[in-house]
Amino acid sequence: MKTTLIAITVAAAFGASALCALAAEPIQIIEPAVITEPAKVELGKKLFFEPRLSKSGFLSCNSCHNLSLGGVDAIPTSIGHDWQEGPINAPTVLNAKYMLAQFWDGRAADLQEQAAGPIENPKEMAMEHHIALKVLESIPQYQAEFKAIYGEQGISLSTVTDAIAVFEETLVTPNSRFDQYLAGDHDALSAEEKAGYALFKANACSACHNGPAVGGTSYQKMGLVQPFVTDNPAQGRIDVTGKESDRNVFKVPTLRNIELTYPYFHDGSVWDLTEAVKVMQQVQLGLPLSDEEAGKIAAFLKTLTGEQPQITLPILPPSTAETPRPQPFGQ
Amino acid sequence: MKTTLIAITVAAAFGASALCALAAEPIQIIEPAVITEPAKVELGKKLFFEPRLSKSGFLSCNSCHNLSLGGVDAIPTSIGHDWQEGPINAPTVLNAKYMLAQFWDGRAADLQEQAAGPIENPKEMAMEHHIALKVLESIPQYQAEFKAIYGEQGISLSTVTDAIAVFEETLVTPNSRFDQYLAGDHDALSAEEKAGYALFKANACSACHNGPAVGGTSYQKMGLVQPFVTDNPAQGRIDVTGKESDRNVFKVPTLRNIELTYPYFHDGSVWDLTEAVKVMQQVQLGLPLSDEEAGKIAAFLKTLTGEQPQITLPILPPSTAETPRPQPFGQ
Ligand code: HEC
Ligand code: HEC
Ligand code: HEC
Ligand code: HEC
Ligand SMILES: [Ca+2]
Ligand SMILES: [Ca+2]
């Protein structure tokens, strides 16, 4: 609200120039990553791709947050250790740094706190933290890298998760066509896409989906005006706060790169973006949208696909005689 | 044999200069990849990383031939669809183009023929070929890429496997310390490593492990002088030829990057390289090696680790409404 008021004031002061008008938009430009600690980012990337942080030796963060696929696994619920079915759709790690908290229910305050979860989660990587640390400690190249970056702290859960988080902070997707439009290039969007954006604002989508990530700024009830019917047992933020009013309240997901992060919703039940837009309109706002209007909004949403992070696959240092062996099967 | 004779002749003609002496070595230098069809390599890379070629939408070639891990999964036997345990240790895809044929038993003539196997193998990617092709056909970016590269042929099993094979041909690991040594840099190896190489030749390891890939030039009986004890039911090349004399005969694996491709042997039973050297000496040659000698050979073998392919992670084009949905669980 504050930002909007300031923007309007500025716009008034300078005349309603295109630039100033855009400054009042509900969505802000994503800035390219500024890398201040390249060695730490490189280490975090290794850890993000490190299957030896899982019990099987097979699953890494990138298995479920595949950076070839917009940072998701693109299936309704994830495949974890022993092919166990996960409880909820995996959100993207792209632009996750803009989220007010991590996980659908916001139970982790930040990326560092989040990263400790999946390693030990028995349905995900199923690896006791102390064994994960032993794996890294058994490998001289990791020892040297942690020492160079963290000095005395060396290899610990907190340095491991710090490095992963710092890598994840670089996973932003700037320069989408919509950002180009925000930056003043009016030709970056087609007429249909502009109409979709106008509908997005007019229909109050932007009341919930706003900020640089077009989401991730608040928790909201899923099924505000009409229940969202799902088999998925997730209860949302009530699990964190214990408050009945937080039942079915979820972190508003980012709509950046939404073209890539199908299937949609916390249960991964909807594959088609236009369909997802219609569901939103129905359960959150209660006003029917025509197919044409929903299509326009979907067309606008596809302009939010940004430049994907250019990742050079890390080359991981080999295990040694001291490295705890992976346990892929029935142990 | 021919090469050796020529090399000796050349060496005689010019005097036994270092270079000419080295030309007679059983191991040849790995040359860097020369990329003549960059668009095809790029497409093949996408397909190598494409989990939508699997029934689950989760497994790609890179899941089991992880290019962060020397082209293997680094577990004794692979994890396939539905976490099924594979029958045999996954060989590396690095330098696979130098193999006289593909698979442990040589049942595929070349990389292109090989690539069709894992997609449809119910224990690997478990994806009927016609559905895999439908996935690619449903995605306009793939359609355009195949058309630009293959013209009329478009998307077919043969073009898909051709692109994968052409990508795999680029997965060579030149410029190992041993290659530098072969190229004339005598300081590239330590005294211990040189001693290990001398033992490797003196003990006739190089009778089987030779050529640029230090293996892959012949089929040989595993357990030539003493049986190799294993629970693994694989019978080797007899499955291809039907000849009793081919029981327990396997393609000699490459020793390039052997430091990275643990665990060893077709059953993945041995994790330690020095131990693997001792097993070889015992079952193939019958002459005991001291720990010290085996250690020297292992030290030499580690000089065969070459420059790993620098892979920029491909960004895969999104699915469409026409794309067959992945079936990760119980369908
Ligand atoms: C087996 C699949 C799987 C693996 C492996 C996995 N994740 Fe996740 N990830 C998920 C799922 C599912 C969620 C959503 C869980 C929830 O919200 O309750 C999630 C949530 C997240 C989030 C929160 C994003 C948001 O917007 O709320 C981040 C960040 C994340 N994962 C990073 C990682 C990192 C880092 C690793 C490795 C250390 C990792 N994940 C490993 C499946 C996985
Ligand atoms: C009252 C808040 C609110 C409003 C208004 C709202 N959304 Fe949402 N939106 C959410 C929440 C919360 C979710 C996650 C719900 C879930 O998965 O349980 C969501 C999910 C989505 C998704 C799926 C994202 C994903 O990655 O799964 C899309 C697409 C979407 N919204 C678009 C829209 C559009 C378009 C509008 C307007 C027509 C809109 N939303 C209005 C809160 C809102
Ligand atoms: C589920 C694990 C898994 C997947 C997925 C997988 N492979 Fe393999 N791969 C193996 C195993 C195990 C073998 C050995 C099989 C045998 O020899 O009988 C193998 C053998 C090979 C070989 C032969 C190497 C040699 O020296 O003989 C090549 C090349 C290869 N795979 C490439 C691929 C390609 C390309 C894909 C994807 C289209 C792929 N693999 C998918 C596990 C896998
Ligand atoms: C008569 C042929 C022959 C001789 C001689 C031989 N090898 Fe082998 N080697 C093989 C075959 C065949 C295999 C694969 C056996 C299997 O896994 O079933 C193998 C496997 C290996 C492996 C494991 C490779 C992997 O990736 O799993 C190593 C290491 C090795 N040999 C080193 C040596 C050394 C060192 C010597 C000499 C002391 C030697 N070999 C002598 C044929 C031979
Ligand atoms: Ca999703
Ligand atoms: Ca191996």
Q: Can you put this structure into words, describing what you see?
A:
- 2 copies of one chain form a homodimer.
- By secondary structure, chain A is mainly α.
- The first copy, chain A, has 2 domains: 38-169, Cytochrome c-like domain (Cytochrome Bc1 Complex, Chain D, domain 2); 174-302, Cytochrome c-like domain (Cytochrome Bc1 Complex, Chain D, domain 2).
- In chain A, 39% of the residues lie in helices and 2% in strands.
- Chain A is built from 14 helices and 2 strands; from the N terminus they run H-H-H-H-H-H-H-H-H-H-H-E-H-E-H-H.
- Chain A has helices at residues 2-14, 18-23, 38-48, 61-64, 111-120, 129-137, 140-150, 157-169, 177-182, 191-202, 205-208, 238-241, 273-285, 291-302; strands at 219-221, 249-251.
- The A-B interface holds A 49, 51-52, 56-58, 63, 66-70, 73-76, 79, 82-83, 85, 259-260, 262, 271-272, 308, 310-316, 318-319, 321, 325-326, 328-329 and B 49, 51-52, 56-58, 63, 66-70, 73-77, 79, 82-83, 85, 259-260, 262, 271-272, 308, 310-316, 318-319, 321, 325-326, 328-329.
- Bound molecules: heme C (HEC) (4 copies) and calcium ion (CA) (2 copies).
- Residues 72, 89, 261, 263-264, 268 of chain A line the site of one calcium ion (CA).
- One calcium ion is lined by residues 72, 89, 261, 263-264, 268 of chain A.
